[in-house]
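Team,

Forwarding the record for the chain on the shared tracking sheet. I've put the sequence and predicted structure together so nobody has to dig through attachments.
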Amino acid sequence: MKHDTLAALNDSQRRAAVAATPLLVIAGAGTGKTNTVAHRVAHLVREGADPHRLLLLTFSRRAAIELERRAARALRALINAGGNDPGIALPWAGTFHSVAARLLREYAERTGLASTFTIHDRGDSEDLMAVVRHESKIEVTAKRFPAAATCVAIYSRVVNAEASLGEVLRDRYPWCANWESELVALFAAYVAAKQSQQVLDFDDLLLYWSGMLRDAAIAREIGDRFDHVLVDEYQDTNRLQSTILRLLKPDGRGVTVVGDDAQAIYGFRAATVRNILDFPHHYTPPASVVALERNYRSTQPILDASNAVIAHAKERFTKNLAAVRAGGARPRLVTVSDETDQASFVAEEILAHRENAMALRCQAVLFRASSHSALLELELGRRNIPFVKFGGLKFLDASHIKDVLSLLRWVENPHGRLSGFRTLRMLAGVGPATAARLLDAVDAALDPVATMRSLRVPAAAASQWSALIDLYSTLRSGKAEWPGEMDALLAWYEPQLDRLYEDGAARLPDLTQLRRIAATYPSRERFLTELTLDPPAAAGGMADEPLLDEGYVTLSTIHSAKGQEWKSVHILNGVDGCIPSDMACGSDDEIEEERRLLYVAMTRARDHLAIIVPQRFYVQQQTAFGDRHVYASPSRFLTDLARAAFDHQTWPLATSCSRNVVAEPAPTIDLAAQIRSAWQQRIK
């Protein structure tokens, strides 16, 4: 009878919802993963598990909220509560980084951390690295030394991949290998600077959590407070996150991980597919494995093509997605002469779908790299087709947003020099030297506010300085309470906009949106922490949807499209050198990840899928060969097995070929080899 309450699930989902741990759920694309995990949570609670003793680790705050909402709905159905909603609060549902921040604050005294530590985002980390890099007085004029952003990337990979600096330099940054000893010293100084300022970066959150769990007493204490640990998107975890999970639950009791090895596409972030492939063998006896293969998203012809592409993967959990929905058109391989024709073809297809009652918001164009959509963006503009592109300036990277957040962070942590420096530099007449002098005084003071009132500032900044001190004092005292503190801050900051930025008026809506976001958090500390760990995707994405009759077409990199779906998907540049990217063919592992990337792109489509194959590209500004056309070969992932699952078409002739015969291409030259040769000429 117990299983009858899970009647909404198919057989595989039901097994996943009730199976014993340790458990690995291989959730293929579109197979109802979130619904399955929600029912598993609800089932555990129904069987007596305390929701406060469930640790649910996701990869975004939004995912945690959605899972909590669905689990509550599933629990209501399981206990047949009728109209009474029993509710289900999961206080320990969040991202790896947000949970780490909570635990580190809770155990701060026992681990030597200041409980008021603040968290640097990637931009802050690069700024601090630049300061430390400058102060280290490394000789950088005789030979190129890695820039601050590259140094942060190297440091981050060492931490998250649990690799030695030598390994990372050899495998990922070979041109930096001769600087290993200098980088060791630089990273030591960077760590010292963070610790002296009581700040942590993203990587520190996981590193310190891992370090805390290496203390047997603390590990036992934290492990015992959670009866169940569920990890979503496990294929996207890095080695450090896997280590944390194993330290938390060494025997695997209560551990469930969910993911899909075929969608592991974030190797550039130090994620490793090995975590999910090797998971069953981390425990004795091995973990149970349940595969979800019934796809509720795409039609079978699209799944046949997707299955054919991933079938050539060198190592994977075998599964073949089968559609619940019947019928559907076969996907298409469309050969066009060049990128200009590609843009024209896609624009015409979008309008044709629109005339057939498919709204623009139901259509997407995906590509490997952001630059691949340049000509298409121009063509859409010419045809008055609205679009939104994912991958632009992030909301928190906008200068005016960083101004406001820097002031809040400086109030939260007076020792945070980067935040204080940015705040002081907003004042008229305050240059770098004056800002540094003021920060030195505040940093050494027991009473920052009293010290600030005693300091002398340039005459041009006097009135603003007094107002800033009053604001700082109010925010430090907590008199305004949250989110009223944001009102006080914005009342001080908004008059500065026109002086700081030429387009100050245009930036005001972003500040209004930031105020709305702030109101959704219970405190300043939670706001700063959560917003830093789970930022909005882009400034444009924060605005209200344009008042259009049907929204807009989505343009997106494949990486940004993961987890999304559309009725129609066009994939640009299905050629070698683009998919796989010529910059990601250095090893078998990289090529396998590129194969998975194409698979992810294909499985975003519900009803219509087309991969566009330009026969040539116009390449500019290559000194070795000059401006010229180069010919391209179809992606190596479009094997004979995969091609058989597509209809083939040439454009602009618009003549369909035999289903399994490719249109005869123009004579081809290896584009990837030409690009490599050009770079070699530059190096010489």
